[in-house]
Design a protein that fits this description.
Order of helices and strands of chain A: EEEEEHHHHHEEHHHHHHEEEHHHH
CATH architecture of chain A: Orthogonal Bundle
Distance between the termini of chain A: 51 Å
CATH class of chain B: Alpha Beta
CATH superfamily of chain A: Cytochrome-c3 Hydrogenase, chain B
CATH topology of chain B: Beta Polymerase, domain 2
Number of helices of chain B: 3
Number of strands of chain B: 8
Oligomer: heterodimer
Shape of chain A: globular
Order of helices and strands of chain B: EHEEHEEEEHE
CATH superfamily of chain B: NADH:ubiquinone oxidoreductase Nqo5 subunit
Helix content of chain A: 40-55%
Shape of chain B: globular
Strand content of chain A: 5-15%
Number of helices of chain A: 15
Strand content of chain B: 15-25%
Number of strands of chain A: 10
CATH class of chain A: Mainly Alpha
CATH architecture of chain B: 2-Layer Sandwich
Largest interface: A-B, 36 and 33 residues
Radius of gyration of chain A: 21 Å
Structural class of chain B: alpha/beta
Largest sheet of chain A: 3 strands, antiparallel
Radius of gyration of chain B: 20 Å
Number of domains of chain A: 1
């Protein structure tokens, strides 16, 4: 009987104003009934031409721009850019500056993964409760950022050669209190979702990527690790003294949406471990080196990368011996991670496409730049 | 153990061994390949076990006024190494580079981005289109001479590319 029902493919727009696209991002899916036949991404709604703007401003003036690319992990963006300029100009960072950077980058990863996990559960249909829990915990981290640098979202805290100012006296007790509260939260969140049959049914086996596909599509971060490749730049190419800290790289085995979720949960635990070690061994001394305000790095080019919350966040800078970068290119992980979206969605249902997009954890500010 | 960055000479030696005649010149940090041999050389560097550059990390274009460079960063997970390859594109009017999408699927979006912002046409790309800006946007914004291009954006806040040169309404034809 079902063979007699005649269906024909039609185009459905998901977004740009749709809660599951996490910003202004559009997927044009061609569907036959519930089945996705083709998926085309439409982006650029938030394009602000950061790379062109940066060519007109000095190296220091560009730091606030990097906040606004990936607005959910501004500390990591600051860090990646500052590392690239330091590599280009050959500037060293004092030990205290490095440790503060590590603490901030890991706090930012916690905040970002809270958001990623919360929004992902929202996409799977666990409406509002887990995302509000995650927001509650993220709020505490943002309070710590506000205490340190005055801003919650666009921190603008890192500087070339260190950080903008030293930590306040109340910082360490506040972070230790936060970490104590986060450990049971992560356990609770994991227990709530991993034990939930609906959540498992929505995520297990959805959007499967083999390690070969993930590598060939240039993926990075939790997507790559979810597919079973233990590649983390903090281990593979340590920066800011990450080699001193003891932590593990969580990986998944199936490469599905659930594995990406569980990798993020486990990464939050590892981040807590790193912050504790960094706080215990926080060295004294200056937090920054003196860098001329009108910095003119020598002619040349540099590619520096950090392990951001969403993957490999790289900055490719070309200097022509002038006060502003000749070329400023951001290797945005959200943007490049999307290149596997079509492979993951085609053949599934429309509802699964939403879950897959949630599991990639895109930030549109970073896709469009 | 930090990632080992291959020098230009090392990459050139490997590329020359795998695909003879593919290297144009080298600098300290990068190896310039001949555009016509690029896809072959990248495929060889990817599949050969002693280079093993399986991951295209970064792809971008740079405008040097008289020519473009397309920069490729490739890395290997197992051997923990990274290298930098480049090609030069000299024709500004018809800037064409070979597409590496047949080798690396991850180049798809990045080549679209380079085409959109710099106007480098990647030949062999399955669906090359303007990814951020709209079709028909005048000029290529990341080119250094963007402001002086025909139809390009004029300095000032009250003009917007594509809408600035609206023709005058055809009124007062009858005196």
């Amino acid at each position: 009987m079902t063979d007699a029902i005649k269906t024909e493919p039609f185009v459905l727009n998901i977004g740009p104003q749709h809660p599951s696209t996490h910003g202004v991002f559009r997927i044009k899916v061609t569907v036959d009934g519930e089945k996705v036949l083709d998926a085309e991404m439409v982006m650029g709604y938030l394009h602000r031409s950061m790379e062109k703007l940066a060519e007109e401003r000095t190296y220091t003036q560009n730091i606030p721009f990097t906040d606004r690319t990936d607005y959910l992990s501004s500390m990591a963006n600051n860090l990646g850019y500052c590392l690239a300029v330091e590599k280009l100009a050959g500037i060293g960072v004092p030990a205290r500056g490095d440790a503060i950077r590590v603490i901030m980058a890991e706090l930012q990863r916690l905040a970002s993964h809270c958001m990623a996990v919360g929004a992902f559960t929202n996409d799977t249909g666990a409406w509002q409760t887990p995302v509000m829990w995650a927001f509650r915990e993220r709020e505490k981290i943002l309070d710590i950022f506000e205490m340190t640098c005055g801003a919650r979202l666009t921190c603008n805290y890192m500087r070339i050669g260190g950080v903008a100012f030293d930590l306040p006296a109340a910082f360490e007790p506040a972070v230790r209190k936060l970490l104590r509260e986060l450990v049971p939260f992560i356990d609770e969140m994991e227990g709530l979702l991993v034990g939930n049959e609906i959540f498992l049914a929505r995520t297990r086996g959805v959007g499967v990527l083999t390690p070969e596909q993930a590598t060939n599509a240039s993926l990075s971060g939790p997507l790559l690790r979810g597919s079973g490749i233990a590649w983390d730049l903090r281990k593979a190419d340590p920066y800011c003294g990450y080699e001193q800290y003891d932590f593990d790289i969580p990986i998944g085995y199936q490469g599905d949406s659930f594995d990406r979720f569980i990798v993020r949960i486990e990464e939050m635990r590892q981040s807590i471990k790193i912050i504790k070690q960094a706080l215990d061994g926080l060295p004294g001394g200056p937090h920054s080196t003196q860098v001329p305000l009108a910095l003119r790095p020598p002619q040349g080019e540099a590619y520096a990368r950090v392990e951001g919350s969403r993957g490999e966040l790289g900055y490719y800078l070309v200097s022509d011996d002038g006060p502003s970068p000749y070329r400023f290119h951001i290797r945005a992980p959200s943007f490049i991670n999307l290149s596997a979206l079509k492979e993951m969605t085609v053949g599934g249902t429309v509802a699964d496409a939403i879950v897959v997009l949630g599991s990639i954890d895109v930030v549109v500010g970073e896709i469009d730049r | 153990m930090p990632t080992r960055e291959w020098t230009g000479e090392e990459v050139a030696a490997a590329a020359e061994r795998l695909v003879p005649g593919s290297v144009a010149r080298t600098t300290a940090g990068a190896c310039y390949l001949k555009a016509e041999k690029l896809v072959e050389a990248i495929e060889a560097l990817r599949s050969s076990p002693d280079t093993d550059f399986v991951h295209l990390t970064n792809l971008c274009g740079v405008d040097y006024w008289d020519h473009f460079e397309v920069v490729y960063h490739l890395q290997s997970f197992v051997r923990n190494q990274i290298c930098c390859l480049k090609i030069e594109v000299w024709d500004r009017e018809k800037a064409v580079a070979p597409s590496v999408v047949p080798v690396f699927h991850g180049a798809w979006m990045q080549e679209c981005e380079a085409y959109d912002l710099l106007g480098i046409r990647f030949e062999g790309h399955p669906n090359l289109h303007r990814i951020f800006l709209w079709e028909g946007y005048p000029g290529w914004p990341l080119r250094k001479d963007f402001l002086s291009m025909p139809g390009g954006l004029q300095p000032g806040l009250n003009e917007f590319a594509g809408t600035a040169r609206r023709p005058e309404p055809a009124t007062r034809l009858v005196q």
